[in-house]
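Entry type: protein chain
Record version: 2
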Amino acid sequence: MENRQNFNNIQQRVNLYLDQELSSDAEKELLHEAESDKKVKEILEAERGFREMLRIKVQRSHVSPDFIKSIKKSIRKG
């Protein structure tokens, strides 16, 4: 159970780091941990790779300006 909690904690901090939500001190601590702990480094690299793959492979559909106007108009009425 403790290993799972430790993994979840590392995963959470990695996500915060990649989302640029960590404080400067927490960021330095995580990067130092990644340098000295193989598991932390693996988790960080895996998440970076996953996010990069998503950026490359997932493409957003084009939305016409008229459609956007229609949605905004509907929101204002509601």
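Comment: The CA atoms of residues 34 and 41 lie 4 Å apart.
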